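Try this one yourself first.
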């Protein structure tokens, strides 16, 4: 991957305002709801391991 030169008049550095306490709480609430939703939709995976005699054992 090569070096990308900034075109004249364009600044790739972004400075954002600090988050307020309300914003932090809303983001935290969104993330926890997203994680909870994604965990509910997942089915438990079962792994299969071969025994020494060649048969499979479901864990």
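Now uncover the answer:
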């Amino acid at each position: 991957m090569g070096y990308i030169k900034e075109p004249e008049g364009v600044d790739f550095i972004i400075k954002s305002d600090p988050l307020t306490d309300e914003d932090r709480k809303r983001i935290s609430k969104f993330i926890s709801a997203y994680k909870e939703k994604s965990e509910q939709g997942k089915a438990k995976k079962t792994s299969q391991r071969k025994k020494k005699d060649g048969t499979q054992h479901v864990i």
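Discussion: The mean pLDDT is 80. Residues 21-41 form the longest helix (21 residues).
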